[in-house]
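From: lab user (bench 3)
To: helpdesk
Subject: output format question, protein + FE2/S2 (inorganic) cluster

Hello, I'm new to running complex predictions and I'm not sure whether the block I got back is the full result or only part of it. Here's what I submitted:
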Amino acid sequence: MIKHQVNNPEERMILVCCGTGCLANGSGAVYEELCRALEGNDRYQVKTFAKATGCNGLCEKGPLVKIMPDDITYCHVQAEDVSEIVEETLIKGELIKRLMYRDPATKQYYRSHHDTDFYKKQHKVALRNIGEIDPAQVQDYLERGGYQALEKAIKTMTPEEVIEEVLNAGLRGRGGGGFPTGLKWKACAATDKQPRYVICNGDEGDPGAFMDRSILEGDPHTVLEGLIICAYAIGASMGYIYVRDEYDLAVKNLTTAIKDARKCGYLGRNILGSSLSFDIEIVRGGGAFVCGEETALINSIQGNVGEPWDKYIFPTEKGLWEQPTVINNVETWANVPVIINAGSDKFASIGTEGSKGTKVFSLVGKVVNTGLVEVPMGTTLREIIFEIGGGIQKGRQFKAVQTGGPSGGCIPEKLLDLPVDFDTLSQAGSMMGSGGLIVMDDRTCMVEVARYYVNFLAGESCGKCVPCREGISLLLDILTRICEGKGKLEDLDLLESMSKTIQQAALCALGRTAPNPVLSTLQYFRDEYLEHINNHRCPAGVCKELTEFYIDPELCNGCGRCRRKCPADAVTGEKKKAHEIDLSKCITCGECINNCKFQAVKVK
Amino acid sequence: MAVNSQQAADRQAIEKIVNSYPPERRFTLAIMQDLQKHFNYLPKEALQMTAVHVKAPLSAVFSMATFYKAFSLVPKGRVILKVCDGTACHIKGSNVMIDEIYKTLGIKPGETTPDGEFSLETVNCLGACALAPVLVANEKVYAKITPAVLRDVIKKYQGVEQ
Amino acid sequence: MKIRIDGMETEVTSGETILEAARRAGIDIPTLCYSEAFGGQGVCRFCMVEIEVGGKKRLVASCTYPITEEMEVRTATPAVKEIRRNLVTLLYRRAPDSDLMKKLFQEYNCDRIEPVDPEESCIMCRLCVKACEKVGANAISTVLRGTEKRVATPFDEGSEECVGCSACADICPTGAIPVKEEDGRREIWHRSFEMSRCEECGKHYTTQPVSEHVKEQTELNSSSENICPGCRRKKLAAEMAKVRLHVD
Ligand SMILES: Cc1cc2nc3c(=O)[nH]c(=O)nc-3n(C[C@H](O)[C@H](O)[C@H](O)COP(=O)(O)O)c2cc1C
Ligand code: SF4
Ligand code: SF4
Ligand code: SF4
Ligand code: FES
Ligand code: FES
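Helpdesk reply: Thanks, we reran it on our side. This is the complete output you should expect:
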């Protein structure tokens, strides 16, 4: 065991990650147990206390416990481990090896998560405070420089200067479209109508992304500060935060943050002694992906069905209650205080020519290190997936990475060296979207992935306009047919022709981008479509009707894992002898192939 | 008699929720969310009273009640199984879990068992992708589920009475 | 301000939609969800046209696009025509039982497609919802979302708000709203209404709630007779004729 050095800290902080992922793994109990253990205990050399923080991004290894300033990270901590942590680490100063971070690839132990590959390559801007502060304490935020940007803006800058600064920083919207934020603010400020509104879009409906959630939960004040700075810049009187309905913790932390901000005088009348009067209200979404689209969101706030309208006049001119409105994404707002504090030059020094700053991705799927990562724009997909992400799980083969959620596309191996920014991803037929990165391996069927997204959109389209509503219904029909082995070659032409019409004619961007998953898989993985159609075979072994598993007797060493995992008792075989699958019993759930460590289970 | 007092209590609960918001159209969604939380579905009378309160046509309120996924017009089961079908969970086999639930309980997403015990729902990403596939049973999160785990969870809830 | 539509120069007022400007100039842009009474809805997208502003080309819905700057509009480019043809295919697939879609399907020379429900005829243009809104009844609305979306009364039951005016059925381009008139009663949207008789010709012409409503509205300025629109027109024409005689 390694002795840890304590740099004579005046106090010691135990940070327990209470993000959604860790809570799901039991971090709530860990935190409570820790508080109990620390209470009234005078055996520590320094004042020691526990804090519940937001998501550290390493949910896979949760519940995470960090000890500061010693900089020790413990993974998979359960309530039962607390007394050991107290005795061994806090009192004796010993590290507990079994709780330390162990690199899945190199098997090396790390004292702090900061030393791991997962963290070293990251650059935290939007996520700068998350995991380090208690989101329910405004004091924590202030100690890390919170609300200084607001003070600077109000006391030393004119509204025009604030807009110029955001414009010069080259900040582009993180909600998907990548529209220059400064331009939006400028357009709104240039209108001659009052009142004006600001909105924070926290709907986050992308079914594979949770970065906005982690910001709202883990650092709510930074979003408030961004909104207030914008209110000052454009002269808005009221702000709304539209939060996805399922995000209970985000609503809770935001509610506390707004109350505290009012108490501190950052919200309300004459903010910081200026003429700015501004307040913020939370609106809980009703559960509809389309409500992330800004006009649908506005409709939803107004108490209507969340249907978009034709945006031939921008919301900056005619938005909420037909008044000028700036609407930005959660992560966009989180970048604003940094720009004002550090200056636009500093901010713009990170990133690529056309996309400045960093981007938060939720790196999930068949990758070793799943979680939230924040990297400078221009980092390549290969770096994100193979260096930060540690490569593909179970030593399988990388097949594609899906970016941009339901509006995005699937990017194949040959484009992995693409530096990620708004423009390169669009050129590759995908999209930045909100930042979901879903890694797929050879066990992922690309036709089925396309079908999955189209099916998602069939339920999530608002159903207002014909190309989207009826077009998606037709795409879904065709893709389902292909997945069931009933596809025809002509179907591919129809897919392409209808996709084009949907892209060109749909009312809002949901419809206009809906064909992307279909078109990008057709472009890069056409052979998989052809296998389904011509040979009635699903090479990934996903489409049930087209899948037969078998065990290669040469590779099988009879470990019996597949036999034990099979829920249908379809695998038989004696120990240490090659096993067999009884196809009449097999329900093609894939448990066998997923669990075989010797790649002996194959798809026929 | 018991039915009537239940009705009266329900009506009172609706009134209390509805009146806790100013009579403006923009609070329709919030009112409906509170009603859904209280009743686990939106009773007809609740929608009618909401429409009167916010001065909107009943058809508009009904339109919203059927548009947003947070709402249900029929009572849900005692145990609500939510299988995450976000992309990460999907490619890690959430559809296998949905099939498994169909095999054990005979319900598909959006359905409730005839005895009113279980409802199955799919949700789009719970923000716990790192733990995929994820199941939430009455707010308790189960990470990295397999068909076997699923059967155990169902058995566990079948055992417990309220 | 002047714009060019299919090469023809047209004077327009700022804020006017492309569709309005084109119709005034006598250029036909096909529409399915547009009615002069309610303006553009942007629902059917059948009215898509290509516009060119400052050298940049875009496809837009002409019924909702407000003209605020000089532009060139093209209403029948190959891309526009392809969109219309595909939209007809999609709507025929949804509403194969409507005469309108059968006709358009032929007219646009669409390829065979398997319909979803052979008995469906609603194309979800929402004109009925708009009409009902205009009447002030707001008895029907769209329900559900995505591919399931349809028009209905709350809970699919008779609505207290419905006055049985049948404005919805009258405006429906596909005859998708069933109205039954028999023995002095009209059945529509799960309800049955007693009808009023025209005092002139004796025909049943509207439901009682409607004639009550009309009476309330018109009490001040006109007679409170129950007269059907046909007879009213005749009466008016006769009165006009009298007036004209006077002048002459
Ligand atoms: C179907 C659809 C869903 C969207 N969902 C979101 C979302 O969940 N969060 C978000 O910030 N933006 C979302 N957007 C983008 C918004 O419309 C809008 O562009 C964004 O909020 C603007 O903020 P930004 O400029 O800061 O990105 C969505 C767009 C579409 C078309
Ligand atoms: S494109 Fe789809 S989501 Fe957008 S308005 Fe049309 S139907 Fe609604
Ligand atoms: S019923 Fe008729 S008017 Fe109403 S949406 Fe359907 S087609 Fe249009
Ligand atoms: S008949 Fe009823 S539903 Fe139809 S327009 Fe008249 S009031 Fe509305
Ligand atoms: S929730 Fe703890 S690391 Fe994500
Ligand atoms: S007429 Fe323009 S969209 Fe229907």
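A quick orientation on your result: The interface with chain B takes residues 138-145, 153-155, 159, 161 of chain C (CB under 8 Å). Let us know if anything else is unclear.
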